[in-house]
Design brief:
With 135 residues, the protein is an alpha+beta fold. 20% of the residues lie in helices and 33% in strands. The chain has one domain. The longest helix is centred in the C-terminal third of the chain and has 17 residues.
């Protein structure tokens, strides 16, 4: 069973997991959020050093069209995103998370749906040509 986690968009609003393992013996905190901007969404997490009680540098994934945080049945935090970038999957993602996505996410998904619609029927032919020789 998936438990979607919304509105975790920066360090202050991050979803925090207590008692996260650090090495073999120590325990600490780890926090997760989704960073959204014009480039898309990316998963970010950050761990607190239990020896200094300071947060380590955040680790950031690559950008994707849209992502949301998910807590699985084993209480692990992961992300969920559209399976494919076809319009059916994108629309299903919008419906599943209706009213929960931020403006950037909705805008990025709608732009991709529009782009896919514009590209319907467009074909590309790759032909071999002679190389250009510069003398």
């Amino acid at each position: 069973m998936k438990n979607y986690l919304y509105n975790h968009v920066n360090e202050e609003t991050a979803y925090t997991v207590q008692d996260y393992p650090w090495g073999y013996r120590m325990r600490t905190e780890q926090r997760y959020w989704i960073e959204s901007n014009k480039n898309g969404d990316r998963f970010v997490y950050q761990t607190k050093d239990p020896r200094t009680e300071k947060w380590c540098a955040p680790k950031k994934s690559v950008y994707y069209l849209a992502k949301v945080l998910v807590r699985d049945e084993n209480n692990h935090v992961k992300t969920s995103c559209p399976d494919k970038c076809n319009n059916e999957d994108l629309k299903r993602f919008l419906e599943t998370h209706e009213g929960k996505l931020n403006d950037w996410q909705v805008k990025n998904i709608n732009e991709k749906i529009l782009f896919n619609k514009m590209m319907e029927g467009v074909t590309f032919n790759i032909v071999r040509s002679e190389p250009i020789r510069i003398v």
